Amino acid sequence: MSKIRLTVGAMVLLLVIGGCAADPTDGAGGSETRANIVSNKITGSVHEWKVSVSAGRAQAGDVEFAIANFGTIQHEFLVVKTDIKDGKIPLGADNRFSEEGEGILVVDEISEWSVDEAKVLKVTLDPGNYQLLCNIEGHYANGMHTTFVVDEGSGVAPAKKKPAEPVQSNDVTGTVKEWEVDVNAQGATAGDVTFTMTNDGTIQHEFLVVKTDIEDGKIPLGADNRFSEEGEGLAVIDEIPEWSIKQTKTLTLKLDPGNYQLLCNIEGHYANGMHTTFVVT
Predict the structure, then answer these.
(1) CA atoms of 82 and 92, how far apart (whole Å)
(2) Residues 126, 175 within the same domain
(3) What is the DSSP letter of 158?
(4) Predicted structure pTM score
(5) Which domain holds residue 84?
(6) Is residue 142 assigned to a domain?
(7) Is 211 helix (H, G, I), strand (E, B) or coil?
(8) Are residues 125 and 185 in the same domain?
(9) pLDDT averaged over the chain?
(10) What is the C-alpha separation between 213 and 234, in angstroms, rounded?
């Protein structure tokens, strides 16, 4: 079985972490609790000497890992399919294991990357047992590994339920995170509209208010996995530029009646689901 590469031009997204380097998985409960959480969109971190992730299971299919390096040195992140017990892959004289060794399959990896940066890896996983780990010399032996289980299933998360009647407000609050834009209203009346948005993710995001009749999530993307903000059929009204995790920003705009999308246009973020509709009447 060959390696499964990143989608969209074998892309690995490189994003700068803002604010303090706090492990986003620390507040998610103990490791035993996380081992029972099922998600196909996973955040986490690598550091000396641990691999932490927000969920320990996924459904078979596409799985996305958004992983930050919160250590003090470079690390890597490998997705390895194996039935070998966690932490027990045999090591060679160089204190690494052979990535072509018996009983293991390296599906894909984020190569060594810098401190206080995050990268995103998208892989297609079959059912089975996995280890998420770092195989730099000595890192695996020092504890940089954790189990991950892929169950039978579609790997598709259920659609979010919308209120029976769309909520309107000219004072909108919400969050951006991997990989969604979540707001407490689906529209407003024409005039001044204030958006108070918190970055609840583990990496930097931005927040754009775009007037367009293009279907939600269907704005055409370019080779850089972003859309042109001067493109046909859309008007970027204004934005909150990239901002740090756990911080809140406010944007007040005068909006005309029409259809809008609230979104993030950092490379790959729109394609991964960071958009929602907004209607001004």
Answers:
(1) 17
(2) no
(3) P
(4) 0.57
(5) 7-151
(6) yes
(7) strand
(8) no
(9) 85
(10) 8
Residues in a beta bridge with 176: 181, 199
Reading phi first (left if > 0) and then psi (alpha if -120 to 50, else beta), residue 93 is in alpha
Q: For residue 164, is it within any domain?
A: no
Number of domains composing the chain: 2
pLDDT exceeds 70 at position 28: no
Amino acid at 224: D
Do 52 and 35 touch, CB atoms closer than 8 A?
no
pLDDT (average), residues 231-236: 95
128: CB partners within 8 A, 6+ apart: 81, 83, 149, 150
Tell me, yes or no, whether 142 and 45 share the same domain: yes
| Same-domain status, 18 and 90 | yes
Q: Which two tokens stand for residue 164?
A: 């029976």
Quick one: 11 and 147 in the same domain?
Answer: yes
State residue 163's pLDDT score.
53
Closest CA to 207 of 132, 266, 273: 266
28 close to 54: Cβ distance less than 8 angstroms: yes
For the chain, where are the E strands, in sequence order?
13-16, 41-47, 50-53, 57-59, 61-69, 75-82, 104-113, 117-125, 128-133, 145-151, 171-177, 180-183, 187-188, 191-199, 205-212, 234-243, 248-255, 258-263, 275-280
As a whole number of angstroms, the distance between CA 219 and CA 234 comes to 9
Assess contact for 98 and 42: CB atoms under 8 A.
no
Q: Which of 118, 151, 184 is the last residue of a domain?
A: 151
Q: Are residues 144 and 177 in the same domain?
A: no
- C-alpha span between 268 and 271 (Å, rounded): 5
In this structure, the strands spanning 234-243 and 117-125 are unpaired
What's the one-letter identity of residue 45?
S
Q: Are residues 144 and 234 in the same domain?
A: no
The answer to whether 51 touches 68, Cβ cutoff 8 Å, is: no
